[in-house]
Write a structure and sequence with these properties.
The complex is a heterodimer of chains A (62) and B (541). By secondary structure, chain A is mainly α. Helices cover 69% and strands 0% of the residues of chain A. Chain A has a domain at 31-62. Among the domains of chain B are: 8-93 and 126-206 and 303-369, FAD/NAD(P)-binding domain (3-Layer(bba) Sandwich); 429-537, Glutaredoxin. Chain B contains 13 helices and 31 strands. The chains are: A mainly alpha (62), B alpha+beta (541). Chain B: Keywords: FAD, Flavoprotein.
Chain lengths: 62, 541
């Protein structure tokens, strides 16, 4: 499945608030660890290597 | 002048003056093997069993001390079975299936190798390297008694090599002084520090890993530790950045501490310092005896080419990997398996010299696969950057609760044999419903047939494996006798043969190389197709 780069989040403001809230009260190190775990969890959910490669490329280009 | 570089576990071939040393002219030998480690000895055994004279030169008089390579894979045992030395290895070795991974003071998860049934050999055995070598040596002695032309010369050190177009001139030093030898073919099996490589001025490039590992072999007074592989990342006992505990025969345990790059080797190797690490790990109340210790560092690298005219490199001399995954000795054994029959056919005039270039193709492919896997393991075990360590720790953290993260934990991807998918020797793959695991290029999987096992029946030469179809008993192709192994469903009591070789087909014909790799397969027998495939597998097409 090609990487979705058009809007796909059901409720973007809510998601964004959840993301920031998850990091609340964490030290920089703890936040980095959380982000690492989050990336791994989401990557597994996506599963397809090709989609993940496109995501890595998209992130690098930004 | 002959200062031993190490002490011996077994003194097996004491120096004896050879007649060659008194001859005015250098005596020519068909094959000279430099180095009497496991790879050199196995190469001599392979060639000797084919009736090809093999002379091994070693600068010591036997097998060096120390457990070193301890983990031998199924494929290695299968090759050893072919050479007649697999049974004593299996008999002496420790079979293990369960592994546990820890971080700090918690178990992250446990795995079971769950070996597929219907194979003569287990997935792995643990066995001290000196025993492994001794069993190969014993098989050489047995073959010598049967007339195999194998000779091993102890305290024969090669000091200079002159490579000619069609032979090699070797200057050999001995306790009685120097002499010269000639070899039609020379095989360098002289280890990661290969003096042959240096004498020929050949490079050995790759990645250096800035870390050292302290090995301690200890004999436990009580045997409360189970036969499992335990691997700690950042253990609570602080004896190393990672630690591995693994059982060997004779109640000996291998403990491997990752101790960093900048260490004082002499200081670290003092018994009291090693004991301090061990006691922190095992607790003060565990009684043990120190058997052997060593510090090693490693690199992941290989030579550009393994064949240099009449000189061929095998084992660690040709490629070096990290120890994670047991890919050193196991891949060296696949080199031997690959080289033996090719050199045999070339020397007996049944195949062109160019067949040896495919040793390069196939084993460089194998070496790259091993280097890739072992580099990835090393990067996981010893992360090279902060972000790499973050992800590593995240994987370990998640693996405890979520199974998805467990396949990402990499404390060594254990050695599996190579499938030569793109080998120039590969013939037709005309068995559409055939299993992917027995596709052209793959090593044959074992299976129970009748009262024995398939791999024993395939033997040491080209073979036709025919299942549920008639084929001639044997076919002569350019002086090569191709023998048939004909089986049918009644031989397949467990169904493993059908599962591994038929897939959804009702019949099949396989052409198997002497190293028991599939080189072509069809639904039906066709003599022209067979001839063409054998010629291709011998490098003639």
């Amino acid at each position: 499945m090609p990487l979705i780069t058009e809007p796909n989040l059901y409720s973007p403001d809510d998601f964004y608030a959840d993301l920031i809230a998850a990091h609340e009260g964490l030290s920089d190190e703890e936040s980095e660890a959380l982000n690492s775990r989050l990336i791994l969890i989401l990557s597994n959910h996506i599963g397809e290597r090709e989609t993940l490669k496109q995501a890595l490329e998209a992130a690098k280009k930004s | 002048m002959f200062q031993d570089r190490y002490s011996l576990a077994f003194k097996l071939y004491p120096y004896k003056k050879s007649k060659d040393q008194d001859k005015p002219d250098a005596v020519r030998h068909p094959v000279v093997i430099v180095g009497g480690g496991p790879i050199g000895l196995a190469t001599a055994l392979d060639l000797g069993r084919q009736g090809i004279p093999a002379l091994v030169l070693d600068d010591h008089e036997g097998i060096g001390m120390g457990s070193r390579a301890i983990c031998f894979a199924k494929r290695t045992l299968e090759i050893a079975d072919r050479y007649g030395c697999g049974a004593p290895m299996l008999d002496k070795g420790v079979v293990w299936n369960v592994g546990k991974v820890f971080q700090d003071d918690r178990q992250v998860y446990e795995f079971n190798l769950l070996p597929e049934s219907g194979h003569r050999n287990p997935a792995f055995i643990n066995l001290q390297q000196p025993y492994f070598e001794k069993f190969i040596f014993d098989a050489i002695c047995t073959e010598q008694e049967r007339g195999a032309p194998i000779e091993i010369r102890g305290k024969n050190r090669v000091d200079a090599i002159d490579v000619k177009d069609d032979h090699v001139v070797l200057s050999v030093d001995t306790p009685d002084g120097a002499y010269q030898l000639e070899a039609d073919w020379m095989i360098a099996c002289d280890g990661a520090g290969s003096p042959t490589r240096d004498m020929l001025g050949l490079g050995f490039e790759g990645r250096v890993f800035q870390d050292s590992f302290l090995i301690a072999d200890i004999k436990m007074k009580s045997t409360e530790f189970p036969t499992e592989r335990w691997f700690w990342f950042e253990p609570y006992f602080k004896s190393g950045a990672s630690t591995l505990l693994h059982k060997q025969p004779d109640d000996v345990w291998r403990v491997d501490f990752q101790i960093g790059w900048d260490v004082d080797r002499k200081e670290e190797l003092k018994e009291e310092n090693i004991r301090r690490r061990l006691d922190a790990m095992l607790g003060d109340d565990v009684d043990y005896e120190m058997v052997w210790s060593s510090i090693y560092t490693f690199q992941c690298r290989r030579m550009d080419k393994f064949r240099h005219g009449r000189v061929l490199f095998a084992g660690d001399a040709a490629h070096q990997v990290s120890p994670f995954g047991a890919r050193g000795a196991n891949s060296g054994f696949q080199d031997v398996d690959n080289l033996g029959w090719k050199l045999g056919l070339v020397i007996s005039g049944k195949a062109p010299e160019s067949l040896l270039d495919t040793y390069d193709d196939e084993r460089i492919y194998g070496a790259d696969e091993n280097i890739l896997n072992s580099t990835r393991s090393t990067d996981f075990i010893t992360p090279k950057s902060k972000v790499s360590k973050n992800f590593r720790d995240a994987v370990l953290n998640l693996a405890e609760r979520y199974t998805f993260a467990r396949p990402l934990v990499n404390s060594g991807r254990l050695s599996v044999p190579c499938t030569y998918d793109h080998s120039p020797l590969n013939g037709a793959d005309d068995l559409p419903g055939g299993p992917v695991t027995s596709r052209v290029g793959s090593p044959c999987k074992d299976a129970p047939v009748g009262h024995g096992f398939l791999l024993d029946q395939l033997g040491n030469d080209f073979a036709i494996l025919a299942i549920n179809t008639d084929v001639p008993n044997s076919v002569d192709i350019d002086g090569i006798n191709v023998r048939s192994v004909s089986l049918n469903t009644t031989d397949d009591l467990t169904g493993a043969l059908a599962e591994r070789y038929l897939g959804s087909e009702s019949q099949a014909v396989y052409l198997i190389r002497p190293d028991q790799h599939v080189t072509a397969r069809w639904r039906e027998y066709d003599e022209d197709a067979l001839r063409s495939a054998v010629r291709k597998a011998c490098g003639k097409e």
